[in-house]
Specification:
Structural class: alpha+beta
Radius of gyration: 16 Å
Largest sheet: 8 strands, mixed
Number of helices: 4
Helix content: 25-40%
Order of helices and strands: EEHHEEEHEHEE
CATH class of the domain at 13-134: Alpha Beta
CATH architecture of the domain at 13-134: 3-Layer(aba) Sandwich
Distance between the termini: 13 Å
Strand content: 25-35%
CATH superfamily of the domain at 13-134: Gcn5-related N-acetyltransferase (GNAT)
Number of strands: 8
Shape: globular
């Protein structure tokens, strides 16, 4: 394991098809289109954003993990042409207990291509190798079977259901808790 990440710079990550980088104000238009899509945010604790100001608030919020030194949120782009296709990150890093949470969102037009699995594998590997994580968690709102499949493919185990944990669209939703131990992750 390497030394613990020191937040002296924002890291970039590369996979076979994707480039993960810090998001910038140049991403606002793409972020607005992406998070403005009701299908993309259907299983995220938010409503679709509708203005550039809201996109800017999300950009600041995503950047706050880095400034607070408790996580990272990358913009996900295609290596082939730089197209912004989503975001992914490690959040709520608990250094003492060596765990954190992951999350990801991919633009609807890129669903079904394995990008969520590819990006998740990269950020899990980063978390284990640079945050020295022993445990990684992911919360999935009930009904998001695609995300559950991605997590299971990566070695996560469903550990429980948090009943009526999220209130969205006028009703309560159960949340499925998934966990992965570093020793169970196949880099």
């Amino acid at each position: 394991m390497s030394q613990s990440f020191d937040f002296s710079h924002f890291p970039t990550l590369d996979t076979a098809r994707l480039h993960l980088r810090e998001m910038t104000p140049q991403d606002l238009t793409a972020l607005l289109k992406h998070l403005g899509n009701p299908e993309v945010v259907k299983y995220i604790e938010m409503q679709p954003i509708q203005t550039v100001e809201q996109a800017n608030e999300w950009l600041r919020w995503m950047g706050s993990y880095f400034s607070a030194q408790d996580g990272l949120r990358w913009g996900v782009t295609l290596k082939s042409d730089g197209t912004f296709i989503g975001s992914a990150g490690i959040h709520h890093w608990d250094r003492e207990s060596q765990y954190a949470e992951i999350g990801y969102d991919i633009a609807q037009s890129y669903w079904g291509n394995g990008y969520a699995t590819e990006v998740s594998r990269a950020i899990i590997s980063f978390g284990i190798n640079h945050f020295n994580l022993n445990r990684i968690e992911a919360d999935v709102i009930e009904g998001n079977t695609v995300s559950m499949h991605v997590l299971k493919k990566l070695g996560f185990q469903q550990e429980g259901i948090l009943r009526e944990r999220v209130h969205k669209d006028g009703k309560y939703h159960n949340v499925h808790l998934f966990g992965l131990l570093s020793r169970d992750f196949d880099n």
